[in-house]
């Protein structure tokens, strides 16, 4: 979640400054944020929150998030694909020891000669300092295969979280949380992944791009080609 265009391979751990210029994006990995100074205002998949000093948040892969800091803020940011962060998606830290660790890592990053040992172990230390995941009551099981088949028969309809939640007999917020916990991504990211999966399967069966685009609800063959190219680049 940088203030400018991201490089192709951002460093796993970084110090980032945010200002009044509003940004918005999503990415294919977990992003762990810890506030060091000021207040960062976030809106993650429509849910607003404020990140102050010592507060943190885990943005799940695929979650669209808007961000700005009217008074300016500084955060420690970890970009990681590690699935061990899945139980913490959408959550803040549960232990007070996070802020001292974040400040120490920030000093390491700002130092002319940062400690390679500290930075190497930083992801594991942050995960441990985040605290145990809160236990969540389990509801009815979600039949993910059946849900995927149901969605694949309706690509020409404007499917949203409420539609998926209704199929699973859950509220939209309950479904969104279960999707992050069980699939490691937001509901809309999961839905896009299912659509692309079916498109790839149809293409591998020999169908033309135009026919695959028609069957999977893309507005044009070029739109499908662009989506497949983006997905392939994100997987590299």
UniProtKB/TrEMBL annotation:
Residues 145-236 form the HTH araC/xylS-type domain. It holds the Pfam family HTH_18. Residues 1-20 are annotated as: Disordered. InterPro entries: AraC_XylS_family_regulators, Cupin_2, Homeodomain-like_sf, HTH_AraC, RmlC-like_jellyroll, RmlC_Cupin_sf. Keywords: DNA-binding, Transcription, Transcription regulation. This is HTH araC/xylS-type domain-containing protein.
